[in-house]
Write a structure and sequence with these properties.
- The complex is a heterodimer.
- By secondary structure, chain A is mostly helical.
- The longest helix of chain A has 34 residues.
- Chain A contains 16 helices and no strands.
- Chain A starts with 9 loop residues before the first helix and ends in a 5-residue tail after the last helix.
- Chain B is an alpha+beta fold.
- Chain B folds into two domains: 238 residues, P-loop containing nucleotide triphosphate hydrolases (Rossmann fold); 109 residues, OB fold (Dihydrolipoamide Acetyltransferase, E2P).
- Chain B contains eight helices and 21 strands.
- A six-stranded mixed beta sheet of chain B has the order 6-7-8-3-9-10, sandwiched between helices. Chain B has a five-stranded antiparallel beta sheet with strand order 16-20-17-18-19, with no helix packed on it. Chain B has a four-stranded antiparallel beta sheet with strand order 2-1-4-5, with helices on one face.
- In chain B, strand 9 and strand 10 form a beta hairpin.
- Classes of the chains: A mainly alpha, B alpha+beta.
- Chains A and B meet through helix 11 and helix 12 of A and strand 6 and helix 2 of B.
- Chain B: InterPro entries: AAA+_ATPase, ABC_transporter-like_ATP-bd, ABC_transporter-like_CS, ABC_transpr_MalK-like, ABC_transpr_MalK/UgpC-like, Mo/tungstate-bd_C_term_dom, NA-bd_OB-fold, P-loop_NTPase.
- Chain B: GO terms for molecular function: ABC-type transporter activity; ATP binding; ATP hydrolysis activity.
- Chain B: Keywords: ATP-binding, Nucleotide-binding, Transport.
- Chain B: This is Sugar ABC transporter, ATP-binding protein.
- Chain B: It holds the Pfam family ABC_tran.
Chain lengths: 326, 386
């Protein structure tokens, strides 16, 4: 308290009102964080949103407003139809399979008494490795002639395997598939690498989730008559993993939307045969960076953000409404 | 409802012998407490009865049938866990219904959404709902059926766990320290309720606790366990008044029993602190100690066997416990007196204590009770203990 505090005019009194003073301090303390958030996160999004309605190119001094033309292109042109097909194929394949495999691996590892750490390390290795380097390794393995995959498959030709597996018999006759060069297989190969790379991460998250399941609940379930492992899973494990599952699914789907490096490594130009692996991230990179079409690139970015936002909102809703924490 | 028989149950974990051949007959409808300090194997024994743990040797008979090798879900027992183990994602009603759903509905009828469309599912569902609301009424939790366990207090959760146990008619109820997570007041209240519930259901109860007060107040019989053995199994009054073993005498009773070293003189006559007693043991007994409950001691005139200084006292309102330091004794002697004595039992006051030799419990050097006393001790029967 200073001497001036003792004599206050009515205005000063109201300024000294504790609630107002607290509010002002609160704003002052929040200001730096707020400024950074606006500058780094909100402003670029806002700029991208504005640019998505223009034909701006980097280096140009001006731009023209083109209205919703960019969005119109996205929804009408066949290239972008392919983009959406590839993106959703990837997300809808990789997310459920990598979540399922992650859960399965976590349950199996959790039931082990020995070698837990070994399995954890093995499954987690692809997560730690650089995807672009791993993609190159897969490229070698999937090479049509010298790749280990086709050489292994070729070993089955002329044996009983061929009679049991018509697909193999067909390829023994016509030649082994060009995994990366064939329009039918390309996106699935990319999905496979994505699952291979991603499920170890989900497994680690599920393992963490499993440690929080109360052991006595399994005993209670047994006493209550849950005989099979499946019943105990339904009654105890799965509900207890609810929060983990929501998180894992959200993270996996956002990561799937963001897939880029596999495709960039496999197909630096063109995003696969017949643009069959032309996912959104690659499209943003191709349009916005390589071809300097900032307008259309921004439009794709906005769509991309829309999808991610949707997933996040669904997650929020699930967490608040359906999932039990406790 | 059925009785339980345990025959020579042993359990080892690696090198550690947790249970050393336990035999116990529990009659149909009896309430038996397994009481002992932590680590005595009482919970392990309960889990072996439940089938959650396999015994290393010995057999468990439920209703006369050997259930060794029968899994827990097929033993038709109910259990209340220390942590209550309620399913957190299910409402109270759903929690209570789980044992019935698991047993009475087929796998198809239990499926979400389409399960209720299966033939017979509706009728069964109504039966189950009826049983759940009846169990809830018994426990006075019918207002909570729609809540989740996370929204309940400890006492309410405990009731839900009880409700889940009694919604069906099991062969026996197993309770694993069900009151240990409740506050003191609620514990006393629930204690009485469980005892009443037992009388009402006339079911077999096996109750594990480390709290001797719980065991004393609720049970038909108490099995005092220590070091993987049952030291004594008898009615609460007998365990208190007539313990077989020094360890039982020490464990049961609060405050703890007073132990005084006794010398064996000519003809086996015992003396305490140089005062000969009107008691004699068979000659050859060594390391004899006599146990005196706090209420067996009375304030007497000078010349009594024990003379000491009051160093601490606890006034419980109805009772007054005074700790008396007697020169020559390692432990303080605890005396129970009526509150009227408060004026004479001031701190630092010197008191002389005597006792009726008939109330003394005599133990030999190995801690076994010596009953072959020359002046046979008439057992005092007490109605209310503690």
């Amino acid at each position: 308290m200073t001497a001036t505090d003792t004599i206050l005019s009515p205005q000063q009194l109201s300024a000294a009102d504790p609630a107002r003073r607290q509010r002002r301090t609160a704003w002052m303390l929040t200001a730096p964080a707020l400024a950074l958030m606006v500058l780094i996160l909100l402003a670029p999004v806002a700029i991208a949103a504005v640019l998505s309605f223009t034909n701006y190119s980097l280096g140009n001094f001006g731009f023209d407003w083109v209205g919703v033309e960019n969005y119109d292109k996205l929804l009408t042109r066949s290239t972008y139809a392919k983009m959406f097909t590839a993106t959703f194929t990837y997300v809808l394949t990789v997310t459920p399979i990598s979540v399922g495999l992650g859960l399965g691996a976590a349950l199996l590892i959790n039931s082990l008494t020995r070698l837990r750490d070994l399995y954890k390390t093995i499954y987690f290795l692809p997560v730690m490795a650089t995807l672009i380097a791993m993609s190159i390794a897969w490229e070698f393995m999937l090479h049509p002639t010298i790749g280990v995959v086709n050489q292994t498959l070729a070993k089955g030709c002329g044996t009983w395997v061929e009679t049991l597996w018509p697909w193999l018999a067909m390829h023994c006759a016509e030649g082994m598939p060009l995994w990366l060069g064939n329009r039918r297989y390309a996106i699935w190969v990319v999905c496979f690498v994505g699952i291979w790379q991603g499920f170890g991460f989900n497994m680690v998250l599920y393992l963490a989730g499993l440690t929080s399941v109360h052991r006595e609940l399994y005993h209670a379930a047994e006493i209550d008559g849950a005989r099979s492992g499946w019943e105990r899973f339904r009654l105890v494990t799965w509900p207890a993993l609810g929060p983990t599952t929501v998180f894992v699914v959200t993270i996996s789907s956002i990561r799937s939307f963001q897939v880029f490096d596999t495709i960039e490594a496999f197909y630096p130009i063109g995003a696969g045969p017949g643009k069959s692996a032309y996912v959104m991230m690659f499209a943003i990179f191709e349009k916005g960076v390589e071809q300097n079409l900032i307008g259309i690139g921004s439009a794709i970015t906005m769509m991309f953000l829309g999808f991610v936002l949707m997933i996040t909102l669904i997650q929020r809703w699930l967490v608040e409404r359906k999932v039990h924490y406790g | 409802m059925a009785g339980l028989i345990l025959r020579q149950i042993a359990k080892t974990f690696g090198e550690t012998r947790v249970l050393r051949g336990i035999s116990l007959d529990i009659a149909d409808g009896e309430f038996v407490s397994l009481v002992g300090p932590s680590g005595c194997g009482k919970s392990t024994l309960l889990r072996i009865i439940a089938g959650l743990e396999a015994q290393s040797s010995g057999e468990v008979l439920i209703g006369g049938e050997d259930v060794t090798g029968v899994r827990a879900s097929d033993r038709n027992l109910s259990m209340v866990f220390q942590s209550y183990a309620l399913y957190p994602h299910l409402t109270v009603g759903e929690n209570i219904a789980v044992p019935l759903r698991m047993r009475q509905l087929t796998a198809a009828q239990r499926l979400p959404v389409i399960g209720s469309l299966m033939p017979g599912a509706r009728a069964r569902g109504r039966e189950i709902a009826g049983a759940v609301s009846e169990a809830a009424r018994t426990l006075d939790i019918d207002g909570l059926l729609e809540r989740k366990p996370g929204q309940l207090s400890g006492g309410q959760r405990q009731r839900v766990a009880l409700g889940r146990a009694l919604v069906r008619e099991p062969a026996a109820f197993l309770l694993d320290e069900p009151l240990s997570n409740l506050d003191a007041k609620l514990r006393v209240h629930t204690r009485a309720e469980i005892a009443e519930l037992h009388r009402q259901l006339r079911a077999t109860f096996v109750y594990v606790t480390h709290d001797q007060v719980e065991a004393m107040t609720m049970s038909d019989r108490i099995a005092v366990m220590m070091g993987g053995e049952i030291l004594q199994c008898a009615a609460p009054g007998v365990v208190y008044d007539d313990p077989e073993d020094l360890r039982v005498a020490e464990f049961i009773g609060s405050p703890k029993i007073n132990l005084l070293p006794a010398d064996v003189g000519d003809g086996g006559r015992l003396s305490v602190m140089g005062h000969p007693l009107d008691l004699a043991v068979p000659s050859g007994a060594r390391g004899v100690r006599i146990g005196l409950r706090p209420e067996a001691l009375v304030v007497a005139d000078a010349g009594a066997p024990l003379v000491g200084r009051v160093v601490h006292f606890e006034n419980l309102g109805s009772d007054l416990f005074a700790q008396v330091a007697v020169p020559g004794l390692e432990d303080r002697v605890v005396l129970r007196a009526s509150p009227r004595m408060r004026s004479s039992l001031r701190l630092d006051a010197t008191v002389a204590l005597s006792f009726d030799p008939a109330a003394a419990l005599v133990f030999d050097g190995a801690g076994k009770r010596l009953r072959d006393l020359r002046r046979p001790a008439a057992n005092r029967h007490r109605e209310a203990v503690l």
